[in-house]
């Protein structure tokens, strides 16, 4: 068989190019095959099937090329098939693909741990354990916190997303589609109000104080603070719709936890590894979490998750209590090491900030003349728009669906989000060119005009 390999990664022509109807004939063929082979509940946001991706574009099997404002849900931050990732992964697969770190250990695992220990906020003694996914890492953060404190309860927030395993699904706020028909849920998970500035009932100015008072009530009067192992929060909520808590709120929560010996966990699975213009979104709020959870952007598309944090907490789990057959797979570790190198060498933190400034400026301009665009928010290359019925704050999920369809058919891939399904979020790879970024924003501008 002689397969002609289409160019991929950074080699891919960095231009948008729509040459068939969307989806094209080959994508429709795959959709048919999929219908006969996959369960109905597995859905994809795009109707096109990928052939190659890199830089700021995704090419489908019909030869259409899309601008990528999704990065595979905040994963390919350094670009798809990024050159350094490809090189290191190729080298690694030729040396060995797997030995199981629990059986025969290897150096790349330790190197990733050293990097994360150094990069996460705080100068204290830290340790890192590796896993396969964000959900698995969050689950294990809870295990470490429980082992360390000897306490059962876990406090989470409204609008939170922490994963799809039993424990992390329980910790996730939104019923449909994440929890509906999958209960009963794990015990000892409690939920505090999240100060969602745009939607706080008594107004943005009071959101932080009122939410904090309710957190105090929940922890001190209802659960009992000596029963709480950990509190976990996304510094900017991801699936919840890129909600940015009011400045200072999370610091106050962290201090509250410290006073009660509650382990403060930052779920940086979506925000971490350069996405928001710092290595970690916690840094914008000067937070020093006890534990930081990462995954998504960590390994440039290879599956890898991590828990990094205080050595005394991480050392509390008993020998052999934590691990997994594939956890910290050497190929995924090699990819992560290439991601760290790429972010440093290509100054991608600065790039994330520049992308954010550009997006916020242009989207705010659109908002000033479009009553359906309720709010523009986010940080760095993690920006969203919330759509409402004009003149109200009534969520308009149908408008988001229409806008995202418009974008896809005009060659721009986006993702939806939000508790009410009325948020369109943008997570471009940091390797996207200024031209493609401008072109993508132009499609959005036209899409809003067409609403
Ligand atoms: C995606 C996500 C998870 C779950 O990660 P998976 O790799 O899908 O298991 C957990 N927390 C946050 C904040 C996420 O965005």
UniProtKB/TrEMBL annotation:
Enzyme Commission designation: 2.6.1.19, 2.6.1.22
The family line of this record is:
Belongs to the class-III pyridoxal-phosphate-dependent aminotransferase family.
Instruction: Fetch the NCBIfam families from UniProt.
Output: GABAtrnsam (TIGR00700), PRK06058.1 (NF004714)
Coiled-coil features, chain-numbered ranges: none
Q: Name one GO molecular function term.
A: 4-aminobutyrate:2-oxoglutarate transaminase activity
Top-rank EC class of the record's enzyme: transferase
What is this protein's name? (S)-3-amino-2-methylpropionate transaminase
Annotated organism of origin = Nocardia rhamnosiphila
Q: Recite the UniProt keywords alphabetically.
A: Aminotransferase, Pyridoxal phosphate, Transferase
Question: Its pathway?
Answer: Amino-acid degradation; 4-aminobutanoate degradation
Q: Which CDD domains match?
A: OAT_like
Catalyzed reactions per annotation: (S)-3-amino-2-methylpropanoate + 2-oxoglutarate = 2-methyl-3-oxopropanoate + L-glutamate; 4-aminobutanoate + 2-oxoglutarate = succinate semialdehyde + L-glutamate
Q: Does the keyword Transmembrane helix apply?
A: no
Top-rank taxon of the source lineage equals Bacteria
Q: What does this protein need as cofactor? A: pyridoxal 5'-phosphate
InterPro entries per UniProt: 4NH2But_aminotransferase_bac, Aminotrans_3, Aminotrans_3_PPA_site, Class-III_PLP-dep_AT, PyrdxlP-dep_Trfase, PyrdxlP-dep_Trfase_major, PyrdxlP-dep_Trfase_small
């Amino acid at each position: 068989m002689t397969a002609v390999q289409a160019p991929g990664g950074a080699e891919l022509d960095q231009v948008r190019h729509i040459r068939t109807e969307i989806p094209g004939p080959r994508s429709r063929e795959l959709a048919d095959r999929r219908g006969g082979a996959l369960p109905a509940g597995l859905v994809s946001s795009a109707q096109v099937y990928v052939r190659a991706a890199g830089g700021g574009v995704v090419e489908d099997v019909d030869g259409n090329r899309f601008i990528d404002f999704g990065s595979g849900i905040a994963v390919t931050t350094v670009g798809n098939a990024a050159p350094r990732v490809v090189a290191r992964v190729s080298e690694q697969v030729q040396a060995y693909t797997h030995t199981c770190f629990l059986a025969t250990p290897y150096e790349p695992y330790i190197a990733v741990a050293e990097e994360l220990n150094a990069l996460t906020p705080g100068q204290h003694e830290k340790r890192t354990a590796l896993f396969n996914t964000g959900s698995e890492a969050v689950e294990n953060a809870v295990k470490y916190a429980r082992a360390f404190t000897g306490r059962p309860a876990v406090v989470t927030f409204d609008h939170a997303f922490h994963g799809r395993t039993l424990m992390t699904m329980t910790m996730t706020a939104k019923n449909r589609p994440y929890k509906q028909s999958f209960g009963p849920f794990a015990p000892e998970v409690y939920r505090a109000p999240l100060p969602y500035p745009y939607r706080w009932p008594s107004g943005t100015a009071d959101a932080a104080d009122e939410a904090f008072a309710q957190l105090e009530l929940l922890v001190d009067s209802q659960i009992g603070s000596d029963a709480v192992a950990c509190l976990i929060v996304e510094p900017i909520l991801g699936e919840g719709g890129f909600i940015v808590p009011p400045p200072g709120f999370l610091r106050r929560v962290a201090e509250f936890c410290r006073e009660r010996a509650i382990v403060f966990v930052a779920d940086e699975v979506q925000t971490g590894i350069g996405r928001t213009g710092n290595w970690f979104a916690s840094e914008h709020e000067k937070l020093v979490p006890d534990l930081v959870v990462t995954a998504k952007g960590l390994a440039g598309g290879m599956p890898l998750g991590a828990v990094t944090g205080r050595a005394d907490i991480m050392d509390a789990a008993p020998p052999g209590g934590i691990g997994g057959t594939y956890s910290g797979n050497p190929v995924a570790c090699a990819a992560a090491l290439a991601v760290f190198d790429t972010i440093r060498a290509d100054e991608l933190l600065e790039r994330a900030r520049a992308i954010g400034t550009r997006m916020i400026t242009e989207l705010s301009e659109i908002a000033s003349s479009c009553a359906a665009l309720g709010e523009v928010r986010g940080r760095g290359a993690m920006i969203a728009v919330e759509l409402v019925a004009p003149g109200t704050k009534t969520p308009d999920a149908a408008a988001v669906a229409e806008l995202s369809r418009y974008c896809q058919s005009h060659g721009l891939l986006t993702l939806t989000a939000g508790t009410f399904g009325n948020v369109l979020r943008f997570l471009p790879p940091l390797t996207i060119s200024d031209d493609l970024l401008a072109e993508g924003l132009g499609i959005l501008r036209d899409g809003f005009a067409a609403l």
